[in-house]
Amino acid sequence: xxxxxxxxxxxxxxxxxxxxxxxxxxxxxxxxxxxxxxxxxxxxxxxxxxxxxxxxxxxxxxxxxxxxxxxxxxxxxxxxxxxxxxxxxxxxxxxxxxxxxxxxxxxxxxxxxxxxxxxxxxxxxxxxxxxxxxxxxxxxxxxxxxxxxxxxxxxxxxxxxxxxxxxxxxxxxxxxxxxxxxxxxxxxxxxxxxxxxxxxxxxxxxxxxxxxxxxxxxxxxxxxxxxxxxxxxxxxxxxxxxxxxxxxxxxxxxxxxxxxxxxxxxxxxxxxxxx
Length: 275
What we know:
By secondary structure, the protein is mainly beta. The chain has one helix and 20 strands.
């Protein structure tokens, strides 16, 4: 009985002493690393600048400096303070980084960043995130200024693991609402060899990641059974050991600019690196 009382007294003393901690000591505030991650794109034609939310929690900031990045990672653990300007058309949230999110069921939305209609959702999309997986969420289609809505979709980003450090890895995403399914082609400027990056990809879908030699490529897309380029973008560099998503955006009826990507409804092949 005496030994039981002694143990009880020791436990009580330990509990009391733990309450009287040193307030000047460095506290451990590091929580668990989020199990999943999402990257957010505003590719909705004429859509206003937005902040992106998972349920009612803001998960993007406008620049990579506004998030806490995990070491040696392309994922933000926290997003920092809210951007006042939001993510405009053609932009990627959190400076192109992923936002770390726990696995589970969510309603994702883009909410207006400006003072007028502040925080009004212009998109709502339910999706289940699986443990350890990464995703890309896109605003797409044409913004309806009357209903204040725009289309949206999400795709998984199954980046190959381990990374092929001897080559570049590329895939194609189709975010053009009025385009037919297309295949992305990459022609090496040095060798002249052309590679098909996966197969035909329909609107709101992503193709498979494909390895190709690092180098400078002229990109183009073609519809099934056609040799005519639908979209084109010259001189895109793919680095060794890097992973990229090439995303078609814009209105297929509006001609693309001669070079680069425009910030209007013109078609564009966006190049965003995963890591």
